[in-house]
Design brief:
Distance between the termini: 29 Å
Shape: elongated
Oligomer: single chain
Radius of gyration: 16 Å
Order of helices and strands: HHHH
Structural class: mainly alpha
Largest sheet: none
Number of helices: 4
Length: 89
């Protein structure tokens, strides 16, 4: 599954959970949605900035920026998982 599709599916799932959870959890999921939106904007900015031509022109810059984006995505997914798994307890 490509990354964009997986990200979109996560966003849909979080949106569905936000509507379904009890009101006591609503602030947590609202915050989660906000953070997801910020992460998606950062990802879109990264993709828009690093075109093929720009990557070719600044390979070292791309190699520096890509791990930071990947680490941010991993942190975002870990935060989402932690919140969702806590609800199962």
């Amino acid at each position: 599954m490509n990354l964009a599709r997986a990200s979109r599916r996560r966003a849909i799932l979080i949106d569905q959970l936000t509507r379904a959870v009890a009101s006591v959890h609503q602030p947590t999921f609202t915050s989660l949605q906000h953070n997801l939106q910020k992460a998606r904007l950062a990802s879109a900015d990264h993709i828009g900035r690093w075109t093929v031509g720009r990557i070719e022109a600044d390979w070292h810059g791309y190699r520096s920026a890509s791990p930071r984006m990947r680490e941010a995505m991993i942190r975002q997914i870990a935060d989402e998982a932690e919140i969702i798994f806590k609800l199962q307890m």
